[in-house]
Write a structure and sequence with these properties.
- α1 packs antiparallel against α2 and α1 packs antiparallel against α3.
- The protein is mainly alpha-helical.
- It contains three helices and no strands.
- The longest helix has about 50 residues.
Length: about 90
Amino acid sequence: MRWIIKIILFPISLLLSIFTAFLTFLLGVGTTILYFLMLICIIAAIGSFMQKEVSLGIEALVLGFLLSPYGIPMVGAAIIAFLKGINEAIKSI
């Protein structure tokens, strides 16, 4: 009976493994792109502060934080970790 469950869950585990590998690749590429956008936002914030546009500078800093590795990419990493946990739970059956 247990081998029937393993036969049924194997394709799901395989698809989850492929999906998490693809998402990990996308996260790496996306983090690199977002890092460059973050740098542009920080440069724009510095320019805004020099032009005495404080509110625009603060908005650019907040946007830069969201684009940094501690913002949106961290959400993606948490989702990937959750999917990997599900996959490991399936594999342990």
